[in-house]
Amino acid sequence: MMFEEMENRPFIPTEYVVRLAQTPWERAGYHALRRDVFCTEQHVFEYDDRDSIDETAIPIIAACCVAGMPDRIVGAVRIHEAEPGVWRGSRLAVHADHRKLGRIGAELIRMAVSTAHGLGAIRFLATVQEQNVLFFRRLHWKSLGTITLHDLPHHGMEADLSRYPAHGFDQTWLLRPQPRSRQVA
Ligand SMILES: CC(C)(COP(=O)(O)OP(=O)(O)OC[C@H]1O[C@@H](n2cnc3c(N)ncnc32)[C@H](O)[C@@H]1OP(=O)(O)O)[C@@H](O)C(=O)NCCC(=O)NCCS
């Protein structure tokens, strides 16, 4: 391989950790990623996507790891109990460079729903942008109907909790996504 080709080859991390965001570094990265995706990329919000739900929500992050240590926050989602037993997930985001690796978004959803299940959820709901409905269906969610939110078409959706066993871990496994479309040098 030519030196120039090696220089241009993107760094593709092989290890990710999905965990409840607890440290200041994790929380700062979680909010920065949300701003990047929902303000800068999608223009759903102008400058800041925070709202009153953040006062009580549990933040969850995905970080790519270097030498086994979390290096950069590349995924986010939050969960909160909207009414007794009814939990909701929102602000699911994966950094654009780390999408479609086949796991990160899916693992954030798994961590979100299984954590809520472990905290007593009997239903888990989300309002999902229309272009992501198929993604959620494939992860055992069903549509409850269409709604408009932030002027965009969405579906109210519900997770099949039998597919998301309750757990109380604050961290899930390290992942080694294998992108099918990228050649291994
Ligand atoms: C939606 C989002 C979180 C998905 O994250 P991701 O890390 O790319 O998802 P994954 O890699 O875990 O995807 C798992 C599978 O679903 C597929 N998939 C991902 N996004 C999809 C979509 N929008 N529609 C259909 N399938 C999708 C992947 O190709 C993969 O399929 P495979 O297992 O056959 O390869 C990410 O695209 C994102 O952050 N988008 C911008 C913000 C956003 O839309 N948030 C959601 C608001 S509801």
UniProtKB/TrEMBL annotation:
<dbReference type="InterPro" id="IPR000182">
    <property type="entry name" value="GNAT_dom"/>
</dbReference>
<dbReference type="InterPro" id="IPR024035">
    <property type="entry name" value="MSMEG_0567_GNAT"/>
</dbReference>
<protein>
    <recommendedName>
        <fullName>N-acetyltransferase domain-containing protein</fullName>
    </recommendedName>
</protein>
<feature type="domain" description="N-acetyltransferase">
    <location>
        <begin position="16"/>
        <end position="179"/>
    </location>
</feature>
<dbReference type="InterPro" id="IPR016181">
    <property type="entry name" value="Acyl_CoA_acyltransferase"/>
</dbReference>
<dbReference type="GO" id="GO:0016747">
    <property type="term" value="F:acyltransferase activity, transferring groups other than amino-acyl groups"/>
</dbReference>
<dbReference type="Pfam" id="PF00583">
    <property type="entry name" value="Acetyltransf_1"/>
</dbReference>
